[in-house]
Amino acid sequence: MMQRAKSRFKQGIILPLFLMLFIGFKAQSQSIPPLINAFAHNDYFHKRPLFDALDNGYNHIEADVYLRRGKLIVAHILPIFRRKKELENMYFKPLFDRIHGDTSNVNLPNYPITLMIDIKSGADGTYRKLEILLDKYKSIISGYEGGKFIERQITVVLSGNKPMKMIKQQDNRLAFIDADLMKAHKDTIETDIYQMASCKYSRLVKWNGKGEFPEAQRERLCSYVKMAHKNGEKVRLWSSPDNNSVWKELLNCGVDLINTDKLVKLKNFLLSDKNIEETNRSEIKIKMQDAKN
Fold this sequence. Notes:
By secondary structure, this protein is α/β, with parallel strands linked by helices.
């Protein structure tokens, strides 16, 4: 009798405590605002691809993709060792499930989400296969339809080996292109094709974050950012140094997306000033509008 009483007492304590911890965890993770300036580079290298980024407030996520034996495999190199890591199962299906109410494993994402697919295999062949997958999930994917951009929960942007000719010939499609930021001055008439403009950090800036940011490099970066904004494109520099000094100057120059593998470090930086994200939200809109005028 005494044993049963002790068992019931333990259950009465442990169960409510577990529920409190679970609810507290969910409330804490849901309180993270969307980090509109954060870009999860090579997301699939994280312990929980997609989910780690979403839980940290990221809504710009990158996956490298190969077409191998008729399947779209997520990998940086040697896709033969990652045959089970298919693009659909790692990204599209989980996002679709959560959009339609299955939130058992991760908090609801902050929409809209940009999924950048960096094509590592042949551009046209990979895109043809990708089109089949995108069509399967078209109810949640932004598209260019009837001469207009129709935004839905997920916007797909292609980088790497880009199927430029195929994309330009399509009147209706479910994918867009990551433009070459270095060619921003040449792409002013194709704003329906590009959503972003990127280049390697070292092509524009040599500064590593130590000492003063050279004024000539600052002016050069800002001029390219302004050209991209005039075209309606968000700017991203990849392979930039992962330190606060560089991140701060990138934001000051109007760079929209900070590319990083260090999800938590960048999140903490962006949230260090509670107003930084709200300020950047409004400034991005103003800068892009001013550049167009």
